[in-house]
Amino acid sequence: MARQRSACYEAGFAVRQWIDAPRQSEPSATPDSGSSPALRRALVAPPAPPPSSGRCPSCGRARAGRTGSITLGLMADAPYKLILLRHGESEWNAKNLFTGWVDVDLTDKGEKEAVRGGELLKDAGLLPDVVHTSLQKRAIRTAQLGLEAADRHWIPVHRSWRLNERHYGALQGKDKAQTLAEFGEEQFMLWRRSYDTPPPVLKDGADFSQSDDPRYATIPSELRPRTECLKDVVERMLPYWYDGIVPDLLNGRTVLVAAHGNSLRGLVKHLDGISDEDITGLNIPTGIPLAYELDADFHPLKPGGTYLDPDAAQAAIEAVKNQGKKK
Ligand SMILES: O=C(O)[C@@H](CO)OP(=O)(O)O
C-alpha cells in the first residue's frame, strides 16, 4: 500500500500544536497547590525537548514545543492503544441493502458478533478505558454488548455523528444485487468504493432521509450530508479524531472506536496513509476488533493493525467484498 501523508498530516501537526498549547478551560495547577515538590516540578517545568522535536518531520515547519502547559503531567508516552470495531451484522446487512444513515438494529448474529468482539478484547487483555461511537443504534449496541462481555460496561462513552456510517444518498434502502444488475459493475463499484464519487443526492423528506431526525437537528444544514463519498467521510470524521479521540490517547487511555464499515475505512486510510486508489480495495469485517499501537506521531507501529481473530477477519472481509454479488 502506498503511503500518502500530506494535507492530513499537516492538519495533524496543526492540531498537535493546539493540543500542546495550554487550555483555558482546564484548572490551573500552581506551585502553591499543595502538591509535593517533585509533582510541582513535573506539572510546571517544561521537559527538555527531544533532539528531533524542533521541526515537523513532514513539512519542516518549526514545532510549537510543549512549554509550561498544565497538561504536561498528564501526557502519556506512546505507543498509544486504539481499537477499532465495526458493528455486528445489521438487519440491512443481512438483507443486502444499502444502509448509510438509516438507523437499523443488529440481527441476532450481529449481537453474538458484538459479544464475541468483547470476549476477544478481554482474552487479549486489551481493556478500553473510554469508548467513542456514532449516533447509530447498530454501533451503540455493539459497543454496549462488547463492553459488557469484557466487563467494561462502566467506562465513559462519547458519541458523535462524525463517526456515523457514510451517508449513501439515494442508494439508501436499495438492494445491492439489484443495483449492480441495473447499473453495471463499474458504476456500482464507483458508488460503493471509489474515493471521490458520491451516489446521487437523497432529497430532504424522501424515504430513508434523516432530514427530520432529531438527533441531527443541531448539525448546521450546510454540514448535514445528503450523500457522501469516502472523501467526504474522511473530511467530516477527522475533526472528531483530532478533537475527540486524540486527546484521550494522549492521556494514556486505551480507546475503543465502535463505528461503521466506511467511517472506519476513512480512519484506517488516514492512520495507515493509504492512497486514494488503494483504499478502494479495503473492506472491514463486522464485529472483529482491529487493534493498533500508535507512535508519538500517531503512525501505526504495525501498518494495518492486528485483527484479534485474523482467520475470521479474512473470511468476513471476503464476504463484505462480494456483497453486491449476493442473490
Ligand atoms: O450499506 C452500507 O451502509 C455499507 C455498510 O454496510 O455498505 P458497503 O459495505 O456497501 O459500503
Automatic annotation (TrEMBL):
Enzyme Commission numbers on file: 5.4.2.11
Gene3D superfamilies membership: Phosphoglycerate mutase-like
SMART domains xrefs: PGAM
Region (Disordered): 20-61
Active site: 87 (tele-phosphohistidine intermediate), 165 (proton donor/acceptor)
Annotated transmembrane regions: none
Site, as annotated: Transition state stabilizer: 260
Catalytic activity: (2R)-2-phosphoglycerate = (2R)-3-phosphoglycerate
Record-linked PROSITE patterns: PG_MUTASE (PS00175)
Entries under SUPFAM superfamilies matching the protein: Phosphoglycerate mutase-like
Binding site for substrate: 86-93, 99-100, 138, 165-168, 176, 192-193, 261-262
InterPro entries in the record: His_Pase_superF_clade-1, His_PPase_superfam, PG/BPGM_mutase_AS, Phosphogly_mut1
Pathway(s) annotated for this protein in UniProt: Carbohydrate degradation; glycolysis; pyruvate from D-glyceraldehyde 3-phosphate: step 3/5
Keywords: Gluconeogenesis, Glycolysis, Isomerase
Compositional bias (Polar residues): 25-35
GO molecular function annotation: phosphoglycerate mutase activity
Pfam families: His_Phos_1
Enzyme class: isomerase
Compositional bias (Low complexity): 36-45
GO biological process, one term: glycolytic process
Family membership: Belongs to the phosphoglycerate mutase family. BPG-dependent PGAM subfamily.
NCBIfam families: pgm_1, PRK14115.1, PRK14120.1
Function: Catalyzes the interconversion of 2-phosphoglycerate and 3-phosphoglycerate.
Identification of the protein by name: 2,3-bisphosphoglycerate-dependent phosphoglycerate mutase
Species of provenance: Streptomyces fulvorobeus
Taxonomy of the source species: Bacteria, Bacillati, Actinomycetota, Actinomycetes, Kitasatosporales
Gene: gpmA
